[in-house]
Amino acid sequence: MMKSTHILAIFIVVALAQLFVPARMIFNQETVVSTGTAYKFKTQPIDPSDPFKGKYIYLNYNVNSASSTTTAWKRNEPIYLLFKTDSLGFATIKEISKAQPNHTDYLKTAVTSYDDHTQTVWFSLPFNEFYMNEHKAYDAEIAHSKAQRDSVSNTTYALVYILNGTGVLDNVFINDIPIAEYVER
């Protein structure tokens, strides 16, 4: 009788842990979206398909490097990015730092490379995959690629919320229309 009580207690603890972990992850993402600062990042798309991840649009961003007078940046070293909004409303780098800023709207990522000659730090933004309904993803890829080719009359961007080092990709837009809605038109 004692053994089955212990097994039941262990089962309940494991079940609660399995519910708590995903719930906490969802809560953290929702907190960033509801209280973080929204930035629009111009995109450059590539659309792969992964049998394990499903259909998604892989996004490249115009914001992927910054000048730095600080020397000795190393590959995979943590980097903290502060953003500002340009005159067109898109995110640009305000400041990069090796130390965590005192602000709440910074993004933590890693250095991918550093060019001593030009004093340029290269990095990758951690919100580069936008998942979609499998039936709309291919059409979204085509629409996004066409919009990118005609960048004079089309604007494509990702809306990202940033809070305390985390960035959450909320949606991808073509001419201020969410991509899923754009595809349906």
Q: Please, could you describe this protein's structure?
A:
The protein has 185 residues and is an alpha+beta fold. It is 30% helix and 40% strand. The protein contains 3 helices and 12 strands; from the N terminus they run H-E-E-E-E-E-E-E-E-E-H-E-E-E-H. It has helices spanning 2-35, 134-149, 179-184; strands at 37-46, 49-50, 54-61, 65-67, 78-85, 91-97, 106-115, 120-123, 129-131, 156-163, 166-174, 177-178. The strands form 2 sheets. Strands 1, 2, 3, 9, 10, 11 and 12 form a 7-stranded antiparallel β-sheet that branches. A 5-stranded antiparallel β-sheet has the order 4-8-7-5-6, with no helix packed on it. A hairpin with a 4-residue loop joins strand 7 (106-115) and strand 8 (120-123).
Question: Main traits of this protein?
Answer:
3 helices; alpha+beta; 40% strand; single chain
Record the SSE blueprint.
Elements lengths: L1 H34 L1 E10 L2 E2 L3 E8 L3 E3 L10 E8 L5 E7 L8 E10 L4 E4 L5 E3 L2 H16 L6 E8 L2 E9 L2 E2 H6 L1
Antiparallel strand pairs: 1-3, 1-10, 2-3, 3-9, 4-8, 5-6, 5-7, 7-8, 10-11, 11-12
Helix proportion: 25-40%
Q: Report strand %.
A: 35-45%
CA-CA gap between termini: 64 Å
Q: What is the structural class?
A: alpha+beta
How would you spell out the order of helices and strands? Answer: HEEEEEEEEEHEEEH
C-alpha geometry:
globular
The major pleated sheet works out as: 7 strands, antiparallel
Instruction: Provide the low-confidence segments as ranges.
Output: none
